[in-house]
Amino acid sequence: MAMPKGHKSEQGYATVSGDIDGMDYRSIAEEMSASGHQMNHATARNVFLRAMQKLATPICEMYGCDDPDTIEKTARDPRFQSGMFDLVSGILSETSDSEIDI
What we know:
mainly alpha, 4 helices
C-alpha cells in the first residue's frame, strides 16, 4: 500500500523555511537533538502547530469562532502563520536585547 500524499490547503502550503530564511522542520529537529532534546521532524512540526494553536485560540475567541476545528484550521493557515511571524518580528525589532528575557 502506498503512503498517502501530502495535503495542500486552499491557501497553499505552510512552511517555516520559505522566503524568511527560516529553518525547515528537519533542520529544527537536528538542532534540537544536537542540543540534547531528542526530536524528529514530525515532532518539530507538531510542536510548531501546537504553538500556533495557542496563538490562534484567543484571536478566534475574540471573533466568536472558537470551536476546535476553526482554531486548528486557523493555526495551519499559512497566512495566519506569516502574520504571526510579522507580529513577533516587529515586537522583537522594537525591543532591545537587554529587555528580552527568554
